[in-house]
Amino acid sequence: MHQFQSRDTSEMVAPLIAGMAVAAAAYAGRYSIRAWQVFKARPPTARVRRFYEGGFQPSMTRREAALILGVRESTPSEKIKEAHRRVMVANHPDAGGSHYLASKINEAKDMMLRKNKGGSGSAF
Prior knowledge:
about 0% strand
């Protein structure tokens, strides 16, 4: 009878360990699904870079030009050119962008590079 009892204990331990492993996997899956739902429910502005929202002034200022290009007013000219290219690629009329926005982006680049000789350089 002693031999039967030890065999019975080892036969009971394996299903118990398997059951605990299944329960742990179920809890991990449940946690993962909830974490994914929380991640997907975040507002999109939390992970998207904020850009200048418009409302252009009648005559562009250096501050407005810097906001349009996403740079600081004291940014070196090389960085201004890189920023202009990045913004223009995203808003180019040939890629479905607006001619008006493209002209404002070009005006902002000219203003930041001090090529603007007074007045509004915009065609609009």
